[in-house]
Design goal:
The chain is of the alpha/beta class. It is 43% helix and 18% strand. The termini are far apart.
């Protein structure tokens, strides 16, 4: 018995060791796990693990890290409540670097851990699509805070859910805003040839064509390059009133800078992939006036929102980021589903199927920042689209896109 106690004590100590912000799926579950503190594990409590998955390293890490922090904050607030129900609630954070292949490896690791009952993630569309195939095989429900690709919820996988608007909503609203509010009559469209960026640009193109806005070009570029001169020259020759770029801030910052350097004076617009402090760092003065849509509204617009920001930053020791709010609400949606499943199961630990059914059945859940009601595809019927612009080296909220 003494030997067994010693072994258990060592195992517990190893599980509680923080492995930093990233964990490779090739590691064992204990090494990969990030426990969200909140009290010593008790032998009388059954473990329930909620995974948070997204890019915690690489060029898109701002999306994954902010979503993870919001999710972690929500989970910490619920730990005591779950202890009263007889469960030790833990967070398992994983890094997939926004890489669809890496996302599959992470998903395989998660489905092999029987304590994982749900996933908050993934923030990007490409990773969400590939990982969801694995989750669907084991009825492991996912709630994405930010994956906007239309195809994600069109493939008939019951496990897939998101609280944000889709690309067909974001793209069409962006095009309508450009026509009605900016007076744009023609535009040149560029995309990064990836699921999110190309999908968004295609939706903008579709709406422009419906509304009679002339599309002067629709071209793809390779993400990760530093010189887009060939594309820039095409744009300058076409002389559009607006350039729309479907992609992320890393490329957007370079493209708008090179456009301005070549004398382009028109509007430069994109989606929520532009939302990062690094956009200004990369583009410099060229970021001034850049417009982008987002699925997340201005969370500081109300006194309640301002208080939440203060409380979050005090508790977590970091600033609110692009997907902090939706990471928070996604986790609360998941935990609401888990609680409902526990009740339906007579107070016992529910199965993944029971949690999936409970989450899928959510129709009227009021989150901190967004109301959530899932349709049969897993899309949020209450999702909206908003407009921001960069001015004076920071983003400014413009309003809802209409």
């Amino acid at each position: 018995m003494a030997l067994l106690s010693a072994i258990l004590a060592v195992g517990t100590a190893l599980t509680g060791c923080g492995a930093g912000n990233t964990a490779q799926p090739a590691q064992s579950n204990n090494a990969a796990q990030q426990s969200s503190g909140g009290g010593e594990a008790s032998g009388a409590l059954e473990k329930i693990v909620i995974a948070s998955v997204g890019p915690l390293s690489g060029p898109n890490s701002a999306y994954g890290d902010t979503a993870k922090s919001g999710a972690e904050y929500a989970l910490k607030q619920k730990q005591e409540e779950f202890k009263k129900l007889g469960f030790e609630l833990e967070l398992l954070a994983q890094d997939e670097q926004a890489d669809p292949k890496q996302a599959v490896s992470v998903a395989e690791m998660l489905i092999s851990n029987p304590d994982v009952l749900a996933v908050v993630g993934h923030p990007t569309t490409g990773a969400s699509v590939t990982a969801s195939v694995k989750y669907n095989q084991e009825n492991l429900v996912m709630v994405s805070p930010a994956a906007t690709g239309t195809s994600l919820t069109q493939e008939g996988k019951k496990v897939v859910h998101r609280i944000c608007a889709r690309d067909d909503q974001q793209g069409s609203k962006a095009a309508i805003y450009a026509k009605n509010q900016l007076g744009v009559k023609n535009a040149f469209l560029i995309h990064d040839k990836q699921a999110y960026g190309q999908g968004l640009a295609e939706e903008v193109k579709k709406q422009f064509e419906t509304d009679g806005v002339q599309v002067l070009g629709f071209e793809g570029v390779t993400a990760g390059e530093k010189d887009y001169s060939a594309m820039i020259n095409q744009v300058i020759a076409a002389n559009p009133e607006m350039v729309y770029f479907g992609g992320y801030y890393a490329e957007a910052g370079i493209i708008v800078k090179q456009l301005r350097d070549k004398g382009f004076k028109g509007y430069f617009m994109g989606g929520d992939g532009f939302d990062s402090d690094d956009m200004v760092k990369i583009a410099g003065p060229a970021a001034e006036g850049v417009i982008f849509t987002s699925t997340v509204g201005d969370i500081s617009a109300t006194d309640e929102g301002k208080k939440w920001i203060t409380d979050y930053e005090s508790a977590m020791g970091k600033k609110v980021g692009i997907f902090t709010a939706f990471g928070y609400d996604s986790m609360n949606v998941v935990l609401h589903g888990v609680e409902e499943a526990i009740k339906a199961n007579g107070g016992k630990k529910p199965s993944r199927e029971q949690v999936l059914d409970a989450v899928h059945g959510i129709k009227d859940f009021q989150g901190q920042f967004v109301k959530v009601g899932f349709d049969e595809n897993g899309d949020n019927q209450f999702a909206s689209v908003f407009v921001y612009k960069y001015a004076n080296n920071q983003k400014q909220f413009v309003g809802e896109a209409k």
